[in-house]
Every structure is written in C-alpha cells, then in structure tokens.
Amino acid sequence: MVHFTAEEKVAITSLWSKMNVEEAGGEALGRLLVVYPWTQRFFDNFGNLSSPSAILGNPKVKAHGKKVLTSFGDAIKNMDNLKTTFAKLSELHCDKLHVDPENFRLLGNVMVIILATHFGKEFTPEVQAAWQKLVSAVAIALGHKYH
Amino acid sequence: MSLTKTERTIIVSMWAKISTQADTIGTETLERLFLSYPQTKTYFPHFDLHPGSAQLRAHGSKVVAAVGDAAKSIDNIGAALSKLSELHAYILRVDPVNFKLLSHCLLVTLAARFPADFTAEAHAAWDKFLSVVSSVLTEKYR
C-alpha cells in the first residue's frame, strides 16, 4: 500500500487545484499520441490523427483526455486507497479495452512533463518526486486487476 | 530508429538555446533523478549527492556536455559517443533501464525551463533523440 507524506499530498493537491483539467487532459492525451504514435492503436475511430496539430486539435482527443484526467482527479481525492478506487476501471482496461499497462506509465510521464511546462520553476525536483510517486501508484492500481 | 530531418533541426536549434544553461540543466536533471528514482543513487556511493554539491555540478555538466556532443554530431551519434559507449559497457555498466529514467528527468528539466519551446513536436523529437543516445550508449553491452 502506497503511503503519501503530508508534504507529498500538499505538493500534489496544490498544483492540481491550479490546473485546468479539461485543457490539460486534452494536452496529455494529445502528447501521448504524438510522442508515442503506437498508442494511436487504441483510437482508430478518433478520425484525423495525421499530424501533431491534427491530434492536438482533434475534438475526440480533447473529450477523451478530459475524461481520463477527470478520473485522475479521483485518484487525488483517494490517494490512500488507490487500488480500491480504480478496481472497476482496472477490470475495464483489461477485459474490455485490452490496454497494455505500460501505456499507463507512458501517460503518467507525459502528465509530469505537462505539469513542468505549466508550472516551470514551481515544479521543483521535490514536487516532481511526489507526482512521480502518484502517477506510478495510479498506473499500478490500474493494472492491479489484470489477469 | 533514426531521426528525421525535421527532428534533427528541432534538436539542433533548441540545443543552441539550451547550451547557455548547460551546467545548471545538468545539475537539475541529476537532482530530479535522485529524488524521483532513489535507486539510481546506487551508482554513486562515492559522491556527495546533496543539492549544490561540487561533484553533482561537475557530473551534471559532463552529462549535458555529452548530450551536446550528440546534438552537434546528430548525423552520426554513434561515432561521436563511441568512447562513452565503451565506458558504459565495460566500466560503468549502468543497467539500461536507467537511461530512460535519466532521459525523462532531462525532458522534465527542459520542459520546466523552456515551456514555450517544448511543444508536442519538440517533446517527441527530444524523446526520440535521447532514446537514440541511450541506444548508442548501451549498444556494446553484450
């Protein structure tokens, strides 16, 4: 069971409260599809993914990105209980979506980089470490029900 | 995996901007690495790893200088980093998984310092470039 210190929780929640989840979600998913183009395999029905600008402007990417990041918000409200919080989503990603859990790690790291672009100096090495711990724990929780 | 012309242009032009802050970028990258991935400290038992330590600064400079060498010889990274490749294979023997961790921390440092330049396209180019550098450094491992 992952334990977050009080400092780590503050580092995470304070940044999260300043984020535009809708925009950041689209950016995160968009960057995933741009930087790791093989991840597009899950989104054949998303329409035009032919270039970075097409991907980042794609309304389906933005909508889905918002969904994903909103769900991430649940993680932040339940940092001490991630495996239970994501049990159903874990089953979904395994049984229905057939997503390799490696993709959760890739998306987590893309999110960290987006936080860096948004917060600059404020995204100190200590703050990054707290976020790496969170994205890693979320990735593990999402993979937990795989069979 | 090889870099397209566009990717090379992105790396080379960004490097020109980055090189003025090379030393502090190197130090910050290592600080991020050791904090987020404490297991990487096992390769430095002989170092003082406190933030601001002279050894950390010197080593950070070295690392970023090597990335710079790769950028300056971007058409032949293998040749530019050949000696470093041997060093990593025969002497340092850093487990290959760590190159991804260091690369990620360098990307975070660049993203934090150059947010306007670090577009999705630039992010993709840098991720790929560092992946090529990592491959070169591990290609003699076995």
Automatic annotation (TrEMBL), chain B:
It comes from Callithrix jacchus (White-tufted-ear marmoset). The zeta chain is an alpha-type chain of mammalian embryonic hemoglobin. One of its GO terms (cellular component) is haptoglobin-hemoglobin complex. This is Hemoglobin subunit zeta. Pfam families: Globin. Keywords: Heme, Iron, Metal-binding, Oxygen transport, Transport. Belongs to the globin family. GO terms for biological process: erythrocyte maturation; hydrogen peroxide catabolic process; negative regulation of transcription by RNA polymerase II. GO terms for molecular function: haptoglobin binding; heme binding; iron ion binding; organic acid binding; oxygen binding; oxygen carrier activity; peroxidase activity. Residues 2-142 form the Globin domain. Signal peptide: none annotated. The gene is HBZ. The keyword Iron applies. The keyword RNA-binding does not apply. InterPro entries: Globin, Globin-like_sf, Globin/Proto, Hemoglobin_a-typ, Hemoglobin_oxygen_transport, Hemoglobin_zeta. PROSITE patterns: GLOBIN.
